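User: Here's a structure from my thesis project, written as structure tokens. My advisor, Dr. K., wants to see whether a designed sequence matches the one we expressed. Can you design one independently, without my sequence as a hint?
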């Protein structure tokens, strides 16, 4: 067993809840345990805490409180948005390639029920092109959905022209902002989208809680049936403690967001410079500047990503693959295929995602641990 401390560079997978979040969740479970739908004093107390959390989240994200629907997380939020905005209609759904599985699997399900998926072309940087928007069959399009920040590459889409095209054609637009919220400023009103998904555990909040923001006045068909919670759009007794925990995590980020962004960018650039210096040749996948401040998707030419991942795990460095593993064989990630990353490069891609709990000393130590692994992997 290794005695070296573990270095976590896999923050896009999940983040550790901050101490203040753990404390407030525990306190809410103890002090605001009532059902927020109950009319007695315990229920009213829980309702006050729930609505306070809703208001605080809405204020940070540029939304109205009644536009915030609490869910179990980003996956449910995306599922609810896609099914709820379609409201049982068939037609064309527009999305770029290589979206998060929460979207891809839902689109596959909808395709089995009469919907057609039109794929928006992206360029080699991972950005939707103007020609791609011009090629959309708007007459038959019922919904557009895309990631604001790609979970694998960190690339940030330019939402403005897509939102404008959707408004011009009267088509609802859902944005998956699960990787963006709590890392970069996100303003729901300014984005001018119809719906937006987020999940708390991506920004040091608790797991099991997320939200879907839905523009006021938009009809949304619930995916579940039951009570009338969340304005009848998401039945089930709300978890007050987790909602308050999510609000707390978002507030902690928001209070120091500029400093957080600068710190993560500094760490990211330090890691990239060190890997270029010690592990050359290495290649950055995705747009060089339109990206999350914490994310690097890096190709190690001539290397096998699975072997790299195992070696880094043995070196106590946590990261993730840039390709997927199925049936014992490495498959190229759809987003890398769509970006026309050569197969041999794509097989050697790793994703490093940093967090505010990383330190410059960890970056330097990780570079030292990583430095000779690609050469050893390529020589085998």
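Assistant: Designed independently from the structure alone:
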């Amino acid at each position: 067993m290794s005695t070296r401390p573990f270095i976590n560079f896999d923050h896009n997978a999940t983040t550790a809840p901050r101490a203040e979040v753990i404390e407030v969740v525990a306190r809410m479970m103890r002090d605001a345990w009532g059902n927020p739908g109950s009319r007695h004093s315990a229920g009213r107390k829980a309702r006050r805490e729930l609505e306070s959390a809703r208001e605080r989240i809405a204020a940070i994200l540029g939304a109205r409180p009644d536009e915030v629907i609490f869910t179990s997380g980003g996956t449910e939020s995306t599922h609810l948005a896609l099914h709820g905005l379609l409201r049982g209609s068939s037609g064309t759904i527009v999305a770029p390639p290589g979206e998060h599985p929460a979207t891809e699997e839902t689109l596959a399900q909808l395709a089995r029920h009469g919907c057609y998926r039109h794929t928006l072309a992206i360029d080699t940087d991972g950005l939707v092109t103007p020609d791609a928007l011009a090629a959309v069959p708007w007459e038959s399009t019922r919904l557009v959905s895309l990631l604001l920040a790609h979970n694998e590459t960190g690339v940030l889409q330019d939402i403005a022209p897509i939102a404008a095209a959707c408004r011009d054609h009267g088509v609802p637009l859902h944005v998956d902002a699960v990787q963006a919220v709590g890392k970069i400023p996100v303003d729901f009103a300014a984005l001018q989208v119809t719906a937006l998904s987020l999940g708390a555990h991506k920004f040091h909040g608790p797991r099991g809680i997320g939200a879907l923001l839905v523009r006021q006045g938009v009809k949304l068909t619930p995916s579940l049936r039951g009570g009338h919670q969340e304005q009848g759009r998401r039945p089930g007794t709300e978890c007050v403690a987790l909602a308050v925990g999510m609000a707390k995590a978002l507030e902690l980020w928001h209070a120091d967001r500029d400093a957080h962004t600068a710190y993560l960018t500094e760490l990211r650039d330090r890691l990239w410079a060190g890997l270029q210096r010690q592990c050359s040749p290495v290649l950055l996948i995705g747009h060089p500047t339109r990206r999350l401040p914490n994310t690097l998707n890096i190709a190690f030419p001539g290397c096998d990503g699975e072997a790299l991942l195992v070696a880094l795990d043995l070196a106590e460095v946590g990261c993730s693959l840039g390709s997927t593993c199925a049936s014992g064989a490495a498959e190229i990630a759809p987003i890398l295929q769509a970006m026309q990353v050569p197969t041999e490069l794509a097989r050697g891609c790793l994703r490093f995602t940093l967090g505010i709990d990383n330190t410059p000393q960890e970056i330097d130590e990780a570079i030292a641990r990583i430095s000779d692994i690609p050469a050893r992997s390529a020589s085998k």
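When you compare it with your expressed construct, this may help: The radius of gyration is 21 Å.
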